[in-house]
Design a protein that fits this description.
- The protein contains 14 helices and 14 strands.
- The chain has 385 residues and is α/β, with parallel strands linked by helices.
- The strands form 4 sheets. Strands 5-4-3-6-7 form a 5-stranded parallel beta sheet, sandwiched between helices. Strands 10-8-12-13-14 form a 5-stranded mixed beta sheet, sandwiched between helices.
- Strand 1 and strand 2 form a beta hairpin.
- The N terminus is likely disordered.
């Protein structure tokens, strides 16, 4: 039986539409597959730590383990609730200061429920790390796990990364905070803060870059000053010593201490005759003859204890003491990205004329208003006028 021309035309049209529908469906399926694959790739997070190791997470971390309380402060620069992304911390309250801890606790009471692990100043316990069930373990450069410890932690399915705000801050703060931001899905916020920090530091280095050696004052910075009877703690090659050199000073500890931190004997310090003296202290110095400075204390109390620090035998002969270039700094401003304040303060103390217009208090206000989940408060630095 012969089909009509209309029937044949309808059949051809039906065939074309069927083929088109099949092809379109194939395109849609392929596009969906590509989208899913792309979404999966985006969900993965690849981190490079300060040792050059790469770690890939299936998604941003929500249960970090940290071995230094100052990492909490770093997280607060990029995350509105830094405690919410922690599984465990060392509860090393002295490193962030008693008042600062209370401020975090008041705003984020969940901090009390975090598991406790050893700090970078103690002995690492793999068992503690595994028991905390973090999805990322973040360790300090100076106390990172041994190869055997790392293997045991990773065998439990816990990735390990290393960051550094202590040994080489000027080199490692930026990649370390970038890692924390990327690890927690806050990469843009980390980049925003680091651009702010970089602008502050660049403005300072530009002013001191051409200073000759004879215009770089001898600086003695004594961490935890007068905490014990023996003298004297000092940065060496690294740590805040790098900052002293960056702002146009000469760190007297660098010539004899090959590490980031060590001790000088008093005779050496006297022979160096420092032109600028800076003590660090804080609430962890209670019960000692050391400097009490920070949000727990008034400026008057800080100044009184600073006077006691430089009344020790041998100090009165320093050029710094004779010329009134004696300063006190909260130790809690060291070894974290808050070092942007430390850099500004040291610049003003080492070269007061060059940096007369540098407003560190304005920098602190910007930190509090734009970045920090918990603001920096109180008298964190003092001059002995």
């Amino acid at each position: 039986m012969m089909r009509s021309r209309a029937d044949r035309s309808s059949s051809r049209l039906s065939y074309v539409w069927t083929a088109f529908a099949h092809r379109f469906a194939g395109i849609v399926v392929a596009a969906l597959v590509l989208c899913l694959l792309s979404a999966g790739a985006r969900a993965q997070v690849t981190l490079t730590d300060v040792t050059g190791r790469e770690v890939t997470l299936e998604k941003p971390a929500s249960r970090l383990l940290i071995d230094d309380g100052r990492f909490l402060v770093a997280l607060s620069l990029v995350h509105p609730d830094p405690v919410s992304v922690l599984a465990a911390w060392p509860r090393d309250i002295n490193r962030i200061g008693k008042r600062t801890y209370e401020d975090y606790r008041a705003k984020f009471p969940a901090i009390d429920s975090l598991a406790k692990v050893a700090s970078s100043a103690g002995a690492l316990s793999v068992e503690q790390v595994v028991a905390a069930r973090p999805d990322l373990a973040v360790f300090s450069l100076g106390s990172q796990p041994s190869d055997e410890e790392r293997a045991r932690i990773e065998a439990a399915g816990i990735p390990v990364v290393v960051i550094d705000f202590f040994t080489h801050p000027l080199t490692n703060v930026e990649p370390s905070l970038t890692l924390l931001g990327k690890a927690t899905g806050r990469e843009a916020q980390a980049a925003d803060f680091l651009a702010f920090r970089r602008a502050q530091l660049d403005a300072i280095t530009a002013k001191v870059a051409a200073l000759p050696a004879d215009k770089r004052p001898r600086v003695f910075l004594e961490p935890h000053a007068a905490m014990t009877a023996d003298c004297c703690n000092s940065p060496g090659r690294g740590n805040v010593g790098d900052i002293i050199e960056m702002v146009g000073g000469t760190n007297i500890g660098a010539a004899v201490i090959p590490r980031a931190f060590g001790k000088l004997n008093l005779e050496y310090v006297i022979a160096q005759d420092p032109q600028v003296y800076i003590a660090t202290g804080g609430s962890h110095m209670e019960g000692t003859a050391g400097l009490l400075v920070g949000p727990e204390y008034s400026a008057e109390r800080a100044r009184e204890t600073l006077e006691g620090v430089v009344s020790r035998p041998g100090f009165s002969g320093f050029d710094a003491v004779r010329e009134g270039r004696v300063h006190g700094l909260s130790h809690q401003l060291l070894n974290s990205p808050l070092d942007v304040l430390t850099v500004g303060l040291l610049a003003k103390w080492v070269h007061p004329e060059l940096f007369a217009d540098l407003d560190v208090e304005a920098t602190q206000r910007a930190l509090n208003e734009r970045f920090l989940a918990v603001p920096v408060t109180g008298a964190n630095w003092i001059d002995l006028d």
